[in-house]
Amino acid sequence: MKERTGIVILIVLYAVGLSALLVNELRPVVLPLSPFTLLLSYLILMSSFRWKSPFVWVSLSVFVLGYVAEWVGVHKGWLFGTYTYGVNLGPKISGVPFIIGINWVMVTLVCGATAVSIFKKSWWGVLVAALLMVGLDYFMEPVAMENNYWSWDKGIIPLFNFVSWFIVALIAQVIYRGIAQAKANNTSWTLFVLLFVFFVVQFIF
Q: Is residue 126 a contact partner of residue 177, using CB atoms and an 8 Å limit?
């Protein structure tokens, strides 16, 4: 897939999805499609990196890291807080949607590539990338509850969630910086902006 084609698909996908989610009558139709949107976004992103082996290894490593962290969070409450996953992120394995691992990978790659572009040879980029991931999560959390992606005990998002997110994100970014170290391309820049716009707009409205 040519990069320009992938970018057009992403823009259309998120523009249509966001517009539909802002219409109450369309939400029940669009929300169950969320896992497919995340999966397609990841595939387009990886295609832009030409599925080079460093990105494959980052994907596998961060997928396991994110999935295990979420499993511990859901079943033990040691990470993030007390929460459960809803129905709109697709099939679950032991209470954790498969797609959530893909989401950790995608956000890691997008934020990591963005930070590497700014801090080319500095490990400060690891810290900035992790903070970008936490920033995205800040807007994502209330939207996720509204969309029945996941729900928090008593509807309260604990501060501990963001601390844990930062720690896991930092580990994920160390993995990214240690293996890939690639700067952002047009696709990753586009997806970075689209993800923030997607959640910030819903956060506001």
A: yes
The single residue listed with the structure tokens 């797609």 is: 99
pTM over 0.70: yes
Q: Which of 108, 104, 86 is nearest to 31 (CA)?
A: 86
**Count of C-beta atoms within a 10 Å radius of residue 165:** 22
Residue with tokens 């506001």: 204
Q: Please give the DSSP secondary-structure letter assigned to residue 120.
A: S
- Of 84, 91, 74, 202, the closest CA to residue 146 belongs to 202
pLDDT given for residue 42 in this prediction: 98
* Cβ-contact 177, 125 below 8 angstroms: yes
Q: Tokens 């896991």 label which residue?
A: 168
Q: pLDDT per residue over 149-176, tens digit each?
A: 999 998 899 999 999 999 999 999 999 9
Locate all alpha helices (DSSP H) within 120-158, ordered by sequence: 124-146
Q: 3-class DSSP state for residue 121?
A: coil
Query: Do the bridges between strand 96-97 and strand 92-93 make them parallel or antiparallel, or are there none, so unpaired?
Result: antiparallel
Residues pairing with 93 in the sheet: 96
Sign, Cα dihedral of 106, 109, 114, 119? positive
Q: Which amino acid is it at 176?
A: Y
